[in-house]
Amino acid sequence: MPSKMQIILTACVVLSGTLPASMEAVAAGTRAAKRSKAADVDPRGQVLAFSCAGCHGTDGKSVGIIPGFYGKSPEYLEAALKDFKSGARFSSIMGRHAKGYSDEEIHQIAEYFGTVWTKNK
Ligand code: HEC
Q1: What is the DSSP annotation of 17-51?
Q2: pLDDT tens for residues 72-99?
């Protein structure tokens, strides 16, 4: 007949086998919950967006004759930047500027500018 100690030890071994998997599931759930919040945009986008602020302001309300994009969606901004980069859309400045970013960085910048205005309406 197994002693109490043996039963406890067996339970520990069985549990420790399932623990890492369940911890992983909890962590994945937490990450997904964080991502789903609109406020949780990749902070790298904000850092990259500093290079745009001289002409477009920190939120897309541009200076002087430079066109603004305050209030535009992330999808609109990403498409515009990619079109400038490829040359599909004519530009004087933006084509050269957009060529300096990878598509992933353009996505992060678009996510930042495309949601920043929702936080300081
Ligand atoms: C030196 C000034 C300058 C900088 C810096 C600059 N832009 Fe521009 N931007 C312009 C000008 C000028 C235009 C009009 C198109 C053209 O002639 O290049 C424009 C147009 C745009 C448009 C199109 C707006 C619309 O309504 O469709 C977007 C989007 C944009 N810029 C985003 C950015 C982002 C994002 C950055 C930073 C990665 C940036 N720009 C950096 C000057 C600038």
Answers
A1: HHHHHHHHHHHHHHHHHHHHSTT---HHHHHHHHH
A2: 999 999 999 999 999 999 999 999 999 9
How many Cβ atoms are within 10 Å of 66's Cβ, its own excluded?
A: 13
Q: How far is the CA of 117 from the centre of ligand 1 (A)?
A: 17
d(CA 56, CA 63): 6
Task: Read off the tokens for 26.
Answer: 């909890």
Please tell me the residue having the least CA distance from ligand 1 atom 27.
Answer: 80
**Which amino acid is residue 15, in one-letter code?**
L
Residue with token string 């300081």: 120
Q: What is the pTM of this model?
A: 0.75
The amino acid that residue 78 corresponds to is E
Instruction: Look at the block and give the residue holding tokens 């990619």.
Output: 82
